[in-house]
Amino acid sequence: MYETILTRTEGPDSRRVGIITLNRVKQLNALNDQLMDELGSALKAFDADASIGCMILTGSEKAFAAGADIGAMAGYSFADAYNQDFITRNWEQIRSIRKPVIAAVSGFALGGGCELAMMCDFIIAADNAKFGQPEIKLGIIPGAGGTQRLPRAVGKAKAMDMALTGRMMDAVEAERSGLVSRVVPLDKLMDEALGAALMICGHGQTSVMAAKESVNRAFESGLSDGVMFERRLFQSLFATADQKEGMDAFLNKRKPVFVHR
Ligand code: CO8
Fold first, then answer.
1. Residue 214's domain spans which residues?
2. Tens digits of per-residue pLDDT, 160-202?
3. Residues with CB under 6 A from ligand 1
4. Is residue 258 part of a domain?
5. Of the listed 38, 115, 175, 192, which one is catalytic?
6. 3-state SS, residue 183
7. Taking the model in full, what pTM does it have?
C-alpha cells in the first residue's frame, strides 16, 4: 500500500507497537512529498487504532534520513516554495499525533531528518548515529524547526555551532547534550526501542497521552501556565478507571490491569 515506508506491528494483539520504517534506502531516506504523505497517513492510522499504544519511527542502518530531497527542491523559486508551502504541509503532521512516537535513529539524521527525529517524543540512538543541520552548506537554513527545536534540546551554544558550521554531532555528544535519551549498540537499537515502546503500551493510555501533552506544553508556555496545565490534567486523571486500578494494585502489591480509560 505504501511505496516509501514499511509498516508493521509488534507485541500482544491487545496492545501493539506500530513500527514505521522509512524506506528510500538508496537515497538515504531523503524525504520527499510522497514519503511525507505516506508517513503522515501511517501515523494517523496507528494513532486511530485502539490496539496501538505507541509508535516507533526508524530508518536504515546507514541513515534515519539524510534530509529533505535536495533533487526535488533544487530548482524551486521562492514562489514555488512559498505558494505550495514547499513540503511543510506534510511536515507538521507528526505533531498532531497523540500517542507517543519514539525515533530509533541509526546512521545519518541530517537536515529534515534531524528535524523529523526531534518532532518525535524522544530519540533512542544507535552508536553510529550522526545528527546535523547542514542546510547552511546548501545556501539555506533549517526549515522544519531545526533552529527552534535544536536550541530547546541542546541549548544555544551547540545549536548555533551546528546551524552555522553545519558540522555533525555523534551519538555520544548527542546524548551528553540532551538531544537523545539513550545510546545503544547498533544491533540493539530496535530491541531497546521496542522495549521502551512495550513498556509505554503497558501503562494506561489516558495517562500516557496526558503525560505527552503536558511535557509538550512545557515548550509552548511559560512556567505558571505550564504548571497549571499539568495540575488540571493531573486532577482530571482521578476520573479514570486506570487511576483507581493503578493505585489499588500498588496498595495490594499486585500488577495493575489497565483498561485504558
Ligand atoms: N537528498 C537527495 N538525495 C540524497 C540526499 C538528500 N538529502 N542525501 C543523500 N542523497 C543521495 C545521494 O545523492 C546519493 O545518490 P546517488 O547514489 O544516486 O548518487 C545517495 O543518496 C547516497 O549518498 P552519498 O553517495 O552522498 O553517500 P555518502 O555516504 O558518501 O554521504 C551524506 C552521506 C554525508 C549523508 C551525504 O549523502 C550528504 O551530505 N547528504 C546531504 C545531507 C544534507 O545536506 N541534508 C540536508 C538537506 S536540506 C534539508 O533537509 C532541508 C529541510 C527542510 C525541511 C522541510 C521544510 C519545509
1. 205-252
2. 999 999 999 999 999 999 999 999 999 999 999 999 999 999 9
3. 27-28, 30, 66-71, 86-88, 91, 108, 110-112, 115, 134-135, 138, 143-144
4. no
5. 115
6. strand
7. 0.96
